[in-house]
Specification:
Elements: H1 3-13, H2 25-51, H3 58-76, H4 84-108, H5 113-140, E1 157-158, E2 161-162, H6 164-185, H7 187-197, H8 199-204, H9 209-230, H10 241-256, H11 261-286, H12 296-308, H13 318-326
Antiparallel strand pairs: 1-2
Length: about 325
């Protein structure tokens, strides 16, 4: 079931709520999706900044996180929030293994960016196959629903609202704040920024670039795992959910700027709001048939960004453009 359709049904069932319940359900869904998309795009941006690899397997890390959440909920009968640390650790380990066993040897052999990108596609298919096998095991052996599963019934309730409405943006804000302090206030953050700017020079002054890259990949995978662990509370989980999420994740990173952590936050919320609110507006204007075409919104955003601002919105000199726009223009045939 499409997330927008789910929210449309929620909109009909929650019209009697008061207080925070007066917030439009579509807008609540937009906040949730934007926050989770921000977590995922932060990880993608982090790996691209350090190793310059456009990781198309990044979305599948989120799918792994979703199945970690499903397993924890069904096995321990808790709520998905209790599995967040486990999802971060497992998905971070998967991403770290991908870097150490595949990308690090390829980079030493001088593999090109295109070659590394194609490798990420191959890894995505491998992970997708493993997830499908695991899903079949859960359904046939343990008799759990392991495809198109929703964990919304396990969510907490806060102020007559689903807990995810509060947890998702709070978690995104906490991650961004933590990254800011780590990157600006710690020695490791300085080393990471040095490795991003000039790896050769950073290694000369004593920075262990390989360790920085390894930690970056672990954190990136962990952030995708956090996002994926929470997604089944709002959107149906399935082995192929990573392939659907990766388009929006790339759009968020590209629109905000692949060279900026803060651009990932900006892009995550812009793309998230555009997808949910834009689809709702278009469906009310054109009809429900437009909902399955929601992935076109991030694709259009990617195309527009690459044409108008190739390095993302955070790389645009907005002050300079504003000054040029407001500066008085001299007449073409002015007298000297």
């Amino acid at each position: 079931m499409n997330g927008a359709l789910t929210l449309t049904g929620e909109k009909l069932n929650s019209s009697r709520q008061c207080g925070l319940g007066m917030l439009d359900p579509i807008f609540r869904g937009a906040i949730i999706f934007s926050s989770l998309l921000t977590l995922s795009s932060l990880g993608l941006t982090l790996t691209y900044q350090t190793t310059k690899i456009p990781n198309f397997a990044h979305g599948t890390f989120a799918a792994v996180g979703a199945y970690v959440s499903l397993t924890a909920v069904m096995a321990w009968r808790g709520n998905p929030y209790q599995s967040l640390v486990l999802a971060f650790a497992i998905c971070g380990t998967v991403a770290l293994g991908q870097y150490l066993m595949v990308f690090k040897p390829l980079m030493r052999r001088g593999a090109t960016t295109i070659g590394l990108m194609i490798t990420t596609l191959a890894i995505e298919f491998v992970l997708l196959g493993v997830l499908n096998i695991y899903a079949d095991y859960l359904s046939k052996v343990l008799k759990w629903r392991s495809r198109y599963f929703l964990l919304a019934s396990y969510d907490l309730e806060v102020a007559d609202q689903r807990g995810l409405l509060f947890v998702a943006p709070t978690l995104a804000a906490a991650v961004v704040t933590t990254l800011y302090f780590v990157l600006t206030k710690t020695k490791f953050g300085v080393a990471m920024r040095a490795a991003i700017e000039d790896p050769a020079l950073a290694s000369v002054v004593g920075v262990n670039v390989n360790s920085v890259y390894a930690v970056s990949w672990f954190v990136a995978g962990g952030l995708a795992g956090l996002s994926g662990a929470l997604f089944p509370l709002w959107f149906p989980g399935n082995p192929d959910m990573g392939g659907k999420l990766i388009v929006s994740t790339f759009a968020a990173s590209i629109v905000g700027g692949l060279y900026s952590i803060y651009g990932a936050v900006l892009g995550g919320f812009l793309i998230g709001l555009a997808e949910i609110l834009g689809t709702d507006y278009l469906s009310s204007w054109l009809g429900a048939w437009i909902i399955p075409y929601r992935p076109l919104i991030p694709l259009v955003a990617i195309t527009s960004s690459l044409l108008l601002a190739p390095r993302g919105l955070t790389a645009v000199d907005w002050r300079g453009r504003l000054r040029r726009l407001l500066a008085p223009r001299r007449p073409v045939n002015s007298q000297r």
